[in-house]
Task: inverse folding
């Protein structure tokens, strides 16, 4: 049945990016036809963080034009008639995320599904971030049939973003089990808070990483603490696969308060040491989990994976400590929120169901938003 | 006003744990205290005292997390973080009023000073202040 072309429209509005994408699957090979993301990050930067009501209003304003641009790639102009003809299913992020943001995407998707009588598939945003590893640039098909790619599994996935830090054991494309998580703050949230303590801009990830590059002549070495700062690596040696970043943020706060005005010249050092502390913990725990579960690959996903040092050092450490393990890191543009990964999540769900049952199983009336949805 | 001294993270959790035993449902707990003062640690103890099984994580990103409690008169534990909010209206938009003051729910609000206008007078106010030692905290409960 996979010989036939399957076309899926993905929609994502879980946080502050309004996104739509078209995925075409021919003979089980994935091809992204369009991938449109309208980011509100500059709008929220002036508030120092995402303001839910502002995010929702912008999603509502943007969703139609984002869909228009994404659908145009298929030549679709008359939505009702042409979606009916050219699209097989719609996939939408149903959680986790900000409820006010999620609702806009889900309501838009429901309206389209109702209008065109198409199946509507709810997708888990976090699982989408994992699938982002199989996304190629627009217009390029994956070489192999995706469901035949058994060589990656089992895998350990590190999903790390502003809202989550989790380790997930993936046995195949549909089987996910959480094996560890942060006990308090997410890694990305910690970047935001430390950026705020140091008076750097929002979002904290890029601003801390940029500040850290200013000490290029004296770069930090993985695992080694920078002189005079010496931040903790919370839970790095704990036997479980959980994380804790709240204490790291507090440690930064105390050191900054003790330094007083002297902090001004030390910001790059602070940022480098803080970033290194987060990276050390993330990599160490991930490699430990990979060894414990004897996996074939390590998979990264989520917004924090845009961090260049994390990407580079993970490659180095996996090569050194787990040389037989494959490492998958998404292309930079697919680390942050997008709808292509949501369309892929929709595809895998669709494949588990015979075509004749799609409409019944993926009835748009049954979709519920869940801001705290888990893996 | 009651003053309690905590000397460690564990004692901070215990203060929350003990307070949970006095709760009957419908309470709103307003937490104030600086970054790193232990609001989330306190909340973890409180949740444990209410028999919440899941791990309590920071709600900063989604603003509100709701934990179901099985086999208890208090069925929902609601954890709110007002840190990023601009106005009280934001709390209405995320659906806080579905839970606020409901007999089967207990609501904890971190950074409550940002939304005090909408909180009823019956709210339990807890202020956490940093002590002399690095791990020492003073709790003021009203």
Result:
């Amino acid at each position: 049945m996979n010989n036939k072309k399957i076309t899926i429209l993905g929609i994502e509005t879980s946080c502050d990016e309004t996104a739509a994408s078209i995925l075409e699957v021919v003979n089980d090979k994935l091809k992204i036809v369009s991938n449109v993301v309208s980011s509100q990050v500059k709008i929220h930067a002036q508030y120092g963080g995402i303001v839910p009501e502002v995010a929702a209003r912008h999603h509502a304003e943007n969703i139609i034009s984002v869909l228009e641009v994404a659908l145009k790639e298929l030549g679709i102009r008359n939505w009702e008639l042409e979606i009916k003809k050219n699209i097989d299913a719609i996939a939408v992020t149903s959680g986790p995320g900000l409820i006010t943001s999620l609702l806009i995407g889900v309501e838009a998707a429901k309206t389209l599904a109702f209008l065109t009588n198409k199946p509507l598939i709810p997708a888990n945003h976090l699982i989408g971030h994992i699938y982002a590893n199989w996304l190629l640039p627009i217009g390029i098909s994956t070489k192999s049939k995706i469901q035949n790619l058994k060589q990656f599994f089992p895998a350990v996935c590190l999903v790390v973003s502003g809202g989550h830090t989790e380790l997930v054991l993936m046995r195949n494309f549909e089987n996910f089990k959480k094996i560890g998580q942060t006990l308090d703050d997410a890694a990305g949230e910690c970047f935001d808070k430390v950026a705020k303590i140091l008076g750097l801009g929002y979002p904290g990830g890029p601003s801390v990483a940029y500040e850290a590059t200013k000490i290029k002549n004296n770069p930090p070495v993985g695992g080694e603490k920078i002189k005079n700062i010496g931040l903790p690596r919370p839970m790095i040696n704990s036997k479980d696969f959980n994380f804790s970043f709240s204490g790291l943020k507090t440690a930064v706060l105390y050191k900054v308060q003790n330094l007083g005005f002297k902090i001004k010249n030390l910001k790059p050092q602070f940022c480098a040491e803080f970033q290194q502390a987060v990276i050390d913990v993330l990599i160490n725990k991930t490699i430990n989990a990979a060894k414990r579960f004897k996996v074939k690959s390590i998979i990264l996903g989520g917004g924090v994976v845009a961090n260049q040092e994390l990407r580079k050092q993970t490659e180095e450490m996996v090569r050194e400590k787990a040389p037989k393990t494959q490492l998958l890191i998404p292309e930079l543009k697919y680390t942050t929120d997008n709808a292509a990964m949501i369309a892929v999540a929709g595809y895998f769900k669709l494949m588990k169901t015979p075509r004749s049952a799609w409409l019944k199983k993926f009835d748009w009336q049954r979709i519920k938003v869940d801001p705290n949805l888990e893996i | 006003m009651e003053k309690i001294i905590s000397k460690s993270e564990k004692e901070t959790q215990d203060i929350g744990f003990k307070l949970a035993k006095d709760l009957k449902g419908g309470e709103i707990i307003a937490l104030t205290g600086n970054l790193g003062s232990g609001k989330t640690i306190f909340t973890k103890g409180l949740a444990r005292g209410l028999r919440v099984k899941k791990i309590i994580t920071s709600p900063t990103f989604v603003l509100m997390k709701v934990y179901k409690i099985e086999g208890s008169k208090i069925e929902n534990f609601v954890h709110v973080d007002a840190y990023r909010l601009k106005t009280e209206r934001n709390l209405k938009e995320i659906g806080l009023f579905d839970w606020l003051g409901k007999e089967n729910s207990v609501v904890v609000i971190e950074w409550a000073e940002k939304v005090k206008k909408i909180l009823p007078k019956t709210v339990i106010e807890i202020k956490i202040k940093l002590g002399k030692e690095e791990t020492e905290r003073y709790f003021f409960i009203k």
Summary: The mean pLDDT of chain A is 93. The beta strands of chain A are 6-12, 17-26, 29-39, 89-95, 120-124, 155-160, 165-172, 175-181, 297-301, 326-328. The first strand of chain A starts at residue 6 and ends at 12. Chain A touches chain B at residues 47-53, 56, 96-100, 162-163, 181-186, 189, 193, 197, 246, 249-250, 253-254, 371-372 (CB under 8 Å).
